[in-house]
Fold this protein.
Amino acid sequence: MPATIAVPHAPATELVDELSGMERAVALYASDMPGRYRLQGPEDRNLIGWIAQGVARLGREEIRRRASYLCGHRKLWLRDMTTPEIDRRHKERFPSARRLSLAESMASTSLLWVRPVPAARDLPAVIDGPCPKCDGAGKLWANWVIDDASGWFEEGYGPCWVCQPEGGAA
């Protein structure tokens, strides 16, 4: 009799609670979720299964990488700062805007009944390509407010508010 290897799988709910909202959206996008799916009650087990299926299909690291790029694109899009190159790469990663919108909507709904663990909330926003504000330099020349009440300003380089994690949008 051939030996079989049994790999214990974590239950789908335990897997899903380790994912942020953007990671869940990427997993749903990659899954077999129907394109016109609507929720089937207050706690939809199909949705949790599709999120687990998407993670199994792409892998945890790829889900996190794509979710970071999606988060970075969303932040740039909200400020109307996306470049044609960033948009092109986003469309390569997510060709169907309708499916992505549905996946994001369903992923945000899943947060109501499967809360993410605190570590899942630390998803970095990554810009795919050079920063549109500083051209990838990571710093900007500006007048920096030292003390607003006294009118003390200094001129010089500071971290780019778009692409730098400390004090930046991303």
